[in-house]
């Protein structure tokens, strides 16, 4: 990489950021597109100090992760429609000193599910946190039938009243014919790779199973689903999709980067999977 006086600094903010893959993914794409910029990780316990740094250094693109996705809203000058609906931000773009907040997790989910028919399909959603909210937003838009399963039932109820669908418990699982199963919890994430959010569940080859966890790529949940012949989608797809949208917003691109011939999606997946444990 050629770093010079024109190189821009972008950031990922969160705390901790020990396992973030955003610097690798972003900086690789910048290089591919010839954008003179790097993205570096800034873990810090003081969000106000991070916002001050973004403003002082005129940082154009900031990717926001846990635990700041909701807290950062108070610093956003202009909210996208998705942010207004979800009250969560994963992207800050600074234009003329103003902070524009976006939620490209929505785009990442749409990208990961782009080959899957959602309308009128029964979708089992495991978990009811921020990522589940973004999923509910996408599924509602696509008129899917939602079934919410979460450790804390009250949180599932909040999302069901926001995005529609029914709240279920583990004992209802056997009676539900789920076309699509989506894990939005961190269960199965490194280092707890021997855990799955669904134990003793009979997957079928007609199902599609999407795990938002992207480290490891092949989670136990996806291994279980694959051995029953189900279609599986890794969280890596969502991770790449949300990052591509961040770059489109930053660069004001009108054509989706996923269709840009310079972007080799398979190579990006290999890059991430090669480095993810
Ligand atoms: P969050 O807001 O903290 O929500 C986590 C959800 O998981 C909550 O509903 C929580 O249940 C449930 N949960 C956590 N640990 C559990 C356990 N041991 N047993 C049962 N349920 C458990 O987190 P988030 O922002 O939604 O993120 C969730 C996952 O999605 C993370 O693994 C994150 O890495 C992944 N993610 C991936 C991408 C991507 O690009 N691939 C993007 C965003 C997020 P309670 O409600 O009972 O607490």
Structure, explained:
The protein has 277 residues and is α/β, with parallel strands linked by helices. Helices cover 34% and strands 19% of the residues. The chain has nine helices and twelve strands. The protein has a six-stranded mixed sheet, sandwiched between helices. It is globular and about 60 Å long. The model has no long low-confidence stretch (mean pLDDT 96). It binds NADP nicotinamide-adenine-dinucleotide phosphate (NAP). NADP nicotinamide-adenine-dinucleotide phosphate binds next to helix 4, helix 5 and helix 8.
Summarize the structure.
Helix content is 34%, strand content 19%. With 277 residues, it is of the alpha/beta class. It binds NADP nicotinamide-adenine-dinucleotide phosphate.
Main attributes of the structure:
single chain, 277 residues, 6-stranded mixed beta sheet, 19% strand, binds NADP nicotinamide-adenine-dinucleotide phosphate
